[in-house]
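Collaboration report, partner site 2.

Our partner group contributed sequences for two proteins of shared interest, and the home lab folded both. The records are reproduced in the order in which they were received, starting with the first partner submission.
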Amino acid sequence: MPLEHVITQISNDRFTAIALPLFLLAIVLEALISLRLHRQLYATKDLGVSVAMLLLSSAVDFLPKIAAFIAFFYLHELSPLRDVVQRQWWAWILLFFLDDFVYYWFHRANHETRILWAGHVPHHSSTKFNFGTALRQGVGERVHKYCFWVPLPLLGFDPLMIFTIIALNLIYQFWVHTELVKKLPRVIEWLFNTPSHHRVHHASNVRYLDRNHAGVLIIWDRMFGTFSEELDADPVEYGLTKNIDTHNPVTVAAGEYLGLWRDIKAADKPGDKLRYLFLAPGWHHDGEDLRSNTLRNRG
């Protein structure tokens, strides 16, 4: 497949081209409402970091996205289902569910494996929760992200279909980053990822840690035991269990990788070095176990 063709296919992302101006308008409107209601939902430096993370993640994403598109093309050619699964209406619906299922496990893995968390943590580094926070994408996670979607071309879905659904899923997730929407009708809250559910996901409260990994559908969290309801009795506190006290974009993007490297160097046993890489954040070889499930079990 010619590289020029791949770049043309990837660049022809009409959904993002339409969505980005809407995102910027939504940020402006939410900031104005915040001022009017004296809510202090935004801070200028914090929003600047979010924009910087968007730019950095987009730059880092470029080569992995091209590599993934090429790999998906050849995997699709190998699929025995490629002549069965075309772009029928039912194929799009099936792909929507499969993509959302894959996204759930990708997102959950980013929280439960420290080497992956190091690439995802920038998204959780803000102590604010607003539409601007949605722009604060994980930078390092762009490198490994597409590996999780490898089964889909083997199931007969072509690369352009896959990347279209990935884009639509991410566009949906922008709108759940707000405090201005409390709770939606019960049936919607039961089926879909909502602002209430996603506020839980961005919380540093022990009750809420590593919960609600949904993209569009919250049903995966309900099915696999990672769902938590937002409770009035336990108001959400945004950010990390140990917040990053900086607005330096490089530190926000790479700080956890440096922390991981320091912990690996401090461990003497090869097994402990590997545990730092593959166990959940909070595990320590010579200190208190601060993994989210451990903290919850203590409570």
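Second partner submission, folded after the first:
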Amino acid sequence: MDRDAASVVTVGVWRDEIVDELERYIAVPALSPAFDADWEATGHISEAIAMVSAWIGARPVAGMSVEVQRLPGRTPLIVVEIEPFGVAAGGSTVVLYGHLDKQPPMSGWREGLGAWTPVREGDRLYGRGGADDGYAAFASLAAIQAVQAAGGSHSRCLVLIEASEESGSPDLQPHLEALGERLGDVGLLVCLDSGCATYDTLWLTTSLRGLVSATLRVDVVEEGRHSGLASGLVPSSFRLARILLDRIEDSATGRVLLETAHAAVPPHRRAEAEATAALLGSAGEDFGLVGNLRLMEDDPAEGLLATTWRPALSVVGADGLPPTRSAGNVLRPFTALRLSLRLPPPASAAAVAGELADRLSADPPLGASLSLIDVDCADGWDAPELAPWLAGALNDSSLARFGRPMQLVGEGGSIPFIAMLGDMFPAAQFVVTGVLGPESNAHGPNEFLHVPYAEKLTGCIADVLFAEAARTRPGEPAH
């Protein structure tokens, strides 16, 4: 494959088409079902599906078919099947994965920006979903198009773009079951929904944390009562919730107290974190700490492990608490807290959810009425060892396109599909990477896509597709 010719295609498609399409996509508030229960009636996910699938269908890619798979009560799945091209050997399938559902807009966008307002400033394209993960569908097809246009070969490709990832991918397993034998023999999975520690080289994700999400609700009275009459006698629902949280987290240290939520860090992952911390000179992301706030870990390598291999609890939402400016002197009827518990890759999310429920429900304080609802589980993932052909192809591509060797890093987020497919195809190889780099702020305000990085990453994916097709032909280089 002529790598320079492939670069001309990937960069050209990005600059002539993809950025404009992403701006249209960003403007669509395609909230994931967890944040828009009426998504079918709202129609935004359907609009995004139609927009992306139409763009894909117009690609000059040989042997391609595009369909939208629909299941009752489930978000749609875009399925793009592309026949082997060139002299690709073997019968394996390469799955390229992404999603187009989005997180809520959040507050805090700086002046002139907004979740559904695409704005291009220099290298950055601002707006919700561009980096997480709307670009993936466009980049995947641009990479395949580049391989074909540059005289390369690729194996059978199956591009899957889902619409429930930000809700924990509840619709994906049924879609995979519906695909059945169409999945084929998956030898390689390319996932573009992860991150990079810098924008100057190719970063490969080596692990992902799991996740248990649940809503803890404590009810104390049927309706709000004057605090001058009730407080001191009727227990505060917030205080009871705080007592319950102390059962699962040490509030002084942040240590999670659930035994099932812990796992030993493998020596090679610890060594990887130490090497990455030495390269970066820090634990990675600049979090924009306010005032004199200190991080929970001083050592950069321990900081990386804290966000990739250790459990952590966050309260990410609350009900029953009025805004401070409209809060009356009332003992409130209830407090509901949305809990997000990140887990080390080997931990069983189902086991953690079970222990969480047991800890919270046993002997409620003062006999309080409590419930644990809307429990969602996603297992983490620890990457298998890279096959020599893939390690070589990735490093060679990084050197060619970035001028630097490939780097390895664990990620603190969750991608349920990775663990799901890893269980289905234990012999498969994985390229999990993405554009969520410094300050890109996925899920938060001011999210942006670093366009030049996305262009080069697309070229790297083209290189990998060609290398995968070439690896079974003895004597022929894979780059």
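Feedback sent to the partner group on the second submission included the following. Residues 473-479 have pLDDT under 50 and may be disordered. The chain has two domains: 3-208+380-470, 210-262+311-378.
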